[in-house]
Amino acid sequence: MSTTAQLSARERILSLLDDNSFVEVGAMVTKRSTDFNMQQKEIPADGVITGYGVIDSNLVYVYSQDQTALGGSVGEMHAKKIARIYDMALKVGAPVIGLIDCAGLRLQEATDALNGFGELYLKQTLASGVIPQITAVLGNCGGGVAISSNLSDFTFMAEKDAKIFVNSPNALDGNYMEKCDTSTAKFQAEAGVVDVVCEDDEAVLASIRQLVTILPSNYEDNDSYVECNDDLNRLVPALGTYLKDSAIALKEISDDNFFYEVKSAYAREMVTGFIRLNGMTIGAVANRAEILDEELKAVEEFDGSLTTAGCEKATSFVNFCDAFNIPVLTLTSVKGYKATTEEEKTIAKAAAKLTYVFANATVPKVNVIVGEAYGSAYVTMNSKHIGADLVLAYEDAIIGMMDAKSAAQIMYAEEINACSDATSMIDEKTREYASLQSSVEAAAKRGYVDNIISTEATRKQLVYAYEMLFTKRDSRPSKKHGTV
């Protein structure tokens, strides 16, 4: 039994997979090194159990590190067993799930272990965008193993016993564990390293099972569809109440109110996660103005601006969706970019990457403008201008360069200064500018909005949209890869 978690390495696998479906591969593989009297040490399965099985009838490959076998440390054959699993998964096109509980590099094997790390990194890199890679940290995940966990697409973490670190908290300049434990699930989730945090092993494994059922097995075979029992024409009359908290709004429009959120603790002004529409998995990205509690009272508020962290969170998510042919939905309500000295160091690059990933994505892309959409920040958020296939907007949405009053004061500054009743003139020019340049009707007349819809009809309009776009084909100029 592991000293750092409730379940053993094998029990974790059996809990993750469907009953009686696990087939072990490489059970007899063990170390080759004889240095430091290693031949006298028994390391069952060289510290990692590998094999395959099914989750809700979906084939997956899995490895689970055994903390009781030399701390689950990664040696030469340990790494080769995992690499072998990757080879098999790539051949058949099935996800790889890693259950991490590891003391790190096996010091007794040094250069051989380093070679094993490198081979594993290479396999993960080759698999990126081909098959989904999921890592669950259920014990220690330090040093090079932390790099491996973040080469995967989704990282899970058990809140009670798991730790992720490249350098341990006590090794950081000016820090020690009692001051700030940088290895905890809370710290790593708020830093954007971890996608999902659950209470314990069992909760993590249950959440992974749910994720696997909504993802395609690989980038070619999209089997992430289920039968929809929800009304495709269901209206959502209360949707307007939830729009400021887009996490709730996405749940309301999804089939049977399904929403699988990722990176919920990181950049909370940007929401990312998966919903279902007519049984189809949709990747959703949404700006958020408030976080509402169960009584619909705001417990946290945001200023409606794009931040570096928010852009990076959305960029990573959209990139994954595009790689695996998962359609993308955005709920846009953005006033501009975060204006602080620190943000100014990074926001331009982060916004450029988000613009690039939306423009470069070839999957079906639908944008719903739910509130104010100002300036180039609006353009970045999956607008028609950078390739959205369909743009919908609510009747009270505002689309423009900036708020109408500010624009009027800039454009008519001389006239306002010369006017005896400046307030009346500002109001008049504000109304004029809003009508001509900032209204949703003005954007629709120019073709930048395809349809103006009511909030309650959002679900059925999106169902129609993705059904229409189901057979979309798009291509890009021939090249090796972009550089943004």
TrEMBL record:
One of its GO terms (cellular component) is acetyl-CoA carboxylase complex. InterPro entries: AccD/PCCB (IPR051047), AcCoA_carboxyl_beta (IPR034733), ClpP/crotonase-like_dom_sf (IPR029045), COA_CT_C (IPR011763), COA_CT_N (IPR011762). It holds the Pfam family Carboxyl_trans. Residues 1-227 form the CoA carboxyltransferase N-terminal domain. It comes from the Bacteria. SUPFAM superfamilies: ClpP/crotonase. Keywords: Transferase. Residues 231-482 form the CoA carboxyltransferase C-terminal domain. GO terms for molecular function: propionyl-CoA carboxylase activity; transferase activity. This is Acetyl-CoA carboxylase, carboxyltransferase component. It comes from Anaerosporobacter mobilis DSM 15930.
